[in-house]
Every structure is written in structure tokens, then in C-alpha cells.
Amino acid sequence: MEQIEKIMQEAKEQNAIVCYTIVSPEMREAIDRKADETGVQIVDILGPVLKAIEKTSGLSPKNQPGLIHALDHEYFKRVAAVEFAIKYDDGKNPWGLTKADLVIIGVSRTSKTPLSMYLANKQLKVANVPLVPEIPPPEELFKVPSNRIIGLLIDPYKLNEIRIARLKAMGLTDGANYADIHRIQEELDYARAIMQRLHCMVINVSNRAIEETASLILEYLKKNFNFDY
Fold first, then answer.
1. 127, 158, 159, 214: most buried by Cβ count inside 10 Å?
2. Best CA proximity match to 40, nearest among 62, 63, 18
3. Residue 73 forms beta bridges with which residues?
4. pTM value?
5. 96-114: per-residue pLDDT in tens?
6. Quick one: angle between helices 112-120 and 67-87, nearest 10?
7. How many Å apart are CA 20 and CA 176, to the nearest integer?
8. Is 38 exposed, middle or buried (0-12, 13-18, 19+ CB in 10 A)?
9. Residue 229 confidence (pLDDT) above 70
10. Dist. CA 91–CA 93, nearest whole Å
11. Among residues 44, 45, 43, 38, which one has the least CA distance to residue 15?
């Protein structure tokens, strides 16, 4: 109210017009009263718009200043999370593991990347690490709290189908070691051992859509960290 007094007095002295986009009805009324007292011409830009929307939609405005900035903040948090997921995808940079809100681990073709991107749109900074028997996991992974790690497992025959389809899409034969059922079982056993060592939550993604797996993870985070999504 003190700002209104000062601005309206300055407008009177300079013979200026005051145009305003004030959300608060009380503040708009105060400007109207002060305009009558000072003779300053005013233009309420936002008030008529709000009334028109209210009349047409039947919804009442919240009349809460700053909501657009709150939305902007959420938007930029989501963008930052997506950039994080891209930067630390597929074990590219182990330095990001300790900075992540969540780390997803699993063998190839268990939907680690799309799941990371889906959760990034929930403003979570997610890194993911592939588990391969010949390549030891990065040391940084063992510095992440176990309740911040999610392990993904899958039925070996389901994974076999997925990998064969992947090879065909790449124009390769399905006889590669990548899709061999014995190799797949070896990878899953190795991954299971790493997950047991980490004492992390494990989800079987065999017959789950990404959205369903993400929902389980979000519920887990809500329960353990009061994460609101």
C-alpha cells in the first residue's frame, strides 16, 4: 500500500497515466481510491481479463501473485533434470552419480534411458549405469546411498526377444552373443549380484510399461523422501 501511495503521488506530479496488472482485488481497489483522490488516470489491464475469464469459465481466480514465477521455476527444474539425464546417461560420466537424485542400474535393454527421461520430466535428476560382466561398475556407484539406487531386472526370455528385435532393427543377425540366452542369463546373474551388494530396491520390468515402473519408483520416493510429484 505504501508503494501505491508513492507511485500515485509521483504520477500526479508528472501528469502521468498509471497502467497496472495487479492480481489482488484489494490492491486494485486501493489504486482506484487513490486515483479518485489524486485525479490520476489509471488503466486496469488485468482486472477486466480476469472477470471475462471468470464469467466464461465459471472458475474463480486464485488472486495469488507470483504463480507464474512458480511455474517458471518448475519448468526450469524440469529442463535441468532432462539435461542431467542426457549428460549422465548410460554411465557416460560417473562423476554425476553422487549428484543424482536417483541412479538406475541394469543390463542393456531394460529401459534405463527412457525411464530416466520420464522421471526427469518429474523434475528428478536421474543417472543410469549399464551393468556388464566384463566392466566393473564405477567406484562412484558404491558411494551413492542404497535408497537412492533402483535396480532393474527382467525375465531372460523376454530380454532375449527384445534384443533379437533390436539386432534386426540394426540390420544385424540374431545369432550375435548379445541375444544369446546363456549370455543374457550370465548378465542377469551378474546384475543381481551387484544389486544385492548395493542393497538397493529392485524392480522386475518384464511385463511393465515405463509409466508403470516410474509409478512404482515415485511411490517409493514419496514414501522414503516425501518427494511430491
1. 127
2. 18
3. none
4. 0.71
5. 999 999 999 999 999 999 9
6. 160
7. 69
8. middle
9. no
10. 6
11. 38
